[in-house]
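ingest -> validate -> predict -> emit
validate: passed (alphabet ok, no gaps, 501 aa)
predict: started
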Amino acid sequence: MAGNAELQRKLNQGVEAAKSGDRAAARRLLEEVVEQDERNELAWIWLATVATGASERREYLRRVLAINPRNQRAREALTRLGDEPVAASGRAAASQAQSLQENVRRTDALANRRRGGSTGLIFVIAAAAFLLAGLGIILFGSGVLNPPAPTVTPPSIAQDVPPAGATATLPPQPSSTPVPIELITRSAPTLPATATATLTATPSPTLQVTEPFALNTFEVFYVSQDPAVPEPSLFSILADGTNDGLIEDRMRDVAFAPDGFTFAFVRDVIADSGARAPEIFVTTLGDTGIVTQVTRLGAADTASPSFSPDASHLVFSSSAGGSTPDLWVVSVDGGTPAALTQSPEGEREPAWSPAGGKIAFTSDQGSAGSTEIYIVNVTDDGEALGAAAQATDADRSSYAPSWSSDGRFITFASDRTGDGDIFTMDGQGNNEQLMTIDDQDAEDRRPGFSPDGRWITFVSNREEGTFQTYVIRNNGTNVQRITLNPRVDVSAQFRPRSLTE
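emit:
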């Protein structure tokens, strides 16, 4: 058996590979660990997160329970996979012991196959000892021989954000090595008193058992400006930096509908007077040459469209003949926009929550010379329900809010530290966290969550002074540059997609 230090190194590398989405490397490293230490509970747990299918994942989770029948996370994960683990009760002790014995036999058989079967007698003795220990654990853990003891389980990974739909909540406990976030749940902080009057309370978010998605699972659509042409163009690239290509020229302020197929954008239109005016259009990835013009305002600053959850309406900002921009809502079929806000200060960058019920935006209404993020409750067709609540409060500006796909979190940019940085907070304006900690005074802008919430894309000039597109984990680690072009990247976003495909 390799030394403990070498095994621990492989385990740590396997865990990091799994967390970063490199499933192949994670499987290779973790399999090396269990080949040399078949009772490494943590390695089996992480192997479960990179399993190639449900049956394989069930097997890995069963091995976890064979090693530690009181691993509650593995037990609950098996339950969610439709596999009922044997109950740890006094009456079920005999059945549990039989199950443990079978798992020990399978584990020892695996070890014998990999090691050549030369140590069979040793493993028979070890299996018998393990069986007796397992039976003792069952009896003690079930309260037959003593009262139940607290379960020691590893903690969650700070700030990791998964998809919506979680059902189980588990308390974090101390551990020296992180376990997969896919096997952990947590709750988010509640709304502060200052915003309670205008924000609708939402359920506390919890984490869910899900497969970790590799970066190349997702597409990033980014707007990039060639200085030699008057308007930027839309490009797409896989989130691992491969398959970069042009989608269409003359597109900016791109916003996808939840279906990931329809999208809105802004393009300049030449008026009868010869002046250029930005207007909002809608098209599909099926044929970006076929577009529908949604607005005909003639304003100089129409911008930032965002779809309602049912894709029937768009919210956007425009001065629309006034002196400062307000927020407007219009049907995707066109028509006369309805004002969502009307104030002398100006509101910009609206973002409709994919979960519905809320729109985040920026405004300088409470802070002359700087902007803060506000959240307003709305109906399905974008009518305001009460006054907006201020969500950020910093010395400088906060701007460019973008929701996670489940509507529980917001990522945004702020220059409160002296340069543009990327932050996250929950959907009610609490628990702000800095993501781009070490950016060497770069300007980081226009963030957006991946569909599974584990990654954030943004544009930055941190290398060579040219704005390019990057991704970063939602806990502020693993920054990766994904574009390398001679243009200036203006904005970037993940294309929405179903996580069940």
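Residues 86-179, 181-210 have pLDDT under 50 and may be disordered.
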